[in-house]
């Protein structure tokens, strides 16, 4: 009996660590620094460097592994990424490669041929499981948040009530299916501050706008709220976005729904404020990274 986790431990992790150790050394890190970053001993780094650790050629040759290792090496070497963030990205790739028919699933089924002949509806490597879907959303959201955190000047776009970048599952029906930042994103002395990692069910306001748009025909899966500025609307229009105003003093879901029914191509919603209501712009897009990139382009 062999679990897919054993494939990960015995073949995937040694291969990725070996590749990453080499990339970090190529970027000028000492053996001691590589050991600290990877959380392993210097002797282990030495073994990786001298090829004393067996690696899996199929994992080495996978383009996604190659791309991720290069991205992690760049981020870790420059200090733009923490070891914890790198770990999360590796975990996400592992889950992707475990899905039905993908690399780790293939290696697992080759190690345990009986899995392929299992005659029930249960699938060990089900790519459509709720857990995997949720992890994909959270991974996208983490990448989007990292873009915002590394964008100089983003703090100037954060409204007084705070911003939130949210993303939802494909079949989202309520706020529990939408992930966001607990406590929102704030400007703290000119610095973009994300208080904690994204979770599901923690955003109500931005999630409501996104869900209302989806309920009335939008195919957007992510959204962000930023401070209102007519110049920003003009820039978004120049970029090809369709902007539409809605009334936040009434029921938000109904107002957004009515607005998108009149303008089905709308990707930007805005309201100019009212008694006790701060004017805001909401940018929608297919995923969190795209929304973050659009926001970054405004600076």
Automatic annotation (TrEMBL):
Protein name listed in UniProt: Phosphomethylpyrimidine kinase
PANTHER family: HTH CRO_C1-TYPE DOMAIN-CONTAINING PROTEIN, TRANSCRIPTIONAL REGULATOR PROTEIN-LIKE PROTEIN
Residue intervals of the HTH cro/C1-type domain: 27-48
Source taxon at top rank: Archaea
InterPro entries, alphabetized: Aldolase_II/adducin_N_sf, Cro/C1-type_HTH, Lambda_DNA-bd_dom_sf, ThiN
Keywords: Kinase, Transferase
A Pfam family recorded for this sequence: ThiN
SUPFAM superfamilies, per database record: AraD/HMP-PK domain-like, lambda repressor-like DNA-binding domains
GO molecular function ontology, one term from the record: DNA binding
Keyword Secreted among record annotations: no
PROSITE patterns registered for this protein in UniProt: HTH_CROC1
